Amino acid sequence: MSLRYALAVASVALLIGVAGCVGTVADVANDGEYDRTTVTVREEGGAELATADVRVADTASKRYTGLSDTESLGEDEGMLFVHDEEDEHAYVMREMDFPIDIVFVAADGTITRIHRAELPENGTGGSDLQRYRGVGKYVLEVPYNWTKRNCVSEGDRIEIAGDY
Predict the structure, then answer these.
(1) What is the signed CA dihedral for 125, 69, 120, 128, rounded to 10 degrees?
(2) pLDDT tens across 4-15, in order?
(3) Please, where are the H alpha helices in the chain?
């Protein structure tokens, strides 16, 4: 009897362990691990040009992954990358499935640089990827031509809801 009991306990423990591992894998892929906020773009005179609902990438791991695990963006969706301080940064289109606009933003909210980043050719990777450079504390990635469609340009300002 004790052998049967031990086997039953071991089987239950194994099932619980497997279920826990499956739950962990699903949690990693879940975008619920990202905070969300709203970014509003205003022209110099203060008129609102656009808003975007964004996921916040505020850790080194989230900044590295970026939108690489995202299949597509809605018309006014994106990702806001938050760096510890304003500096020169370079972004690449690593494992991306769609083109984007990459918007560099100073600590005071001023847009300093806008890139329209198309998909790299198939097979391009690593050091061969084009680097999109700019100065900022924040980098906003939005759908391709979002800045053009909304008349967003360098010198405009962004406001970020929340404390980022």
Answers:
(1) -20
(2) 555 455 554 444
(3) 2-29, 60-65, 146-149
Read off the amino acid at residue 34: Y
Gap between the Cα atoms of 105 and 65, Å rounded: 20
Per-residue exposure over 13-42, b if at least 16 CB sit within 10 Å of its own CB, e if not: eeeeeeeeeeeeeeeeeeeeebeebebebb
Q: How far is CA 115 from the centre of its chain?
A: 16
CB atoms within 10 A of CB 78: 22
| Ranges of residues in the chain whose predicted pLDDT is under 50 | 7, 12-30
- 144 burial level (CB within 10 Å; 0-12, 13-18, 19+): middle
Integer Cα distance of 146 and 140 in angstroms: 11
State the DSSP code for 99: -
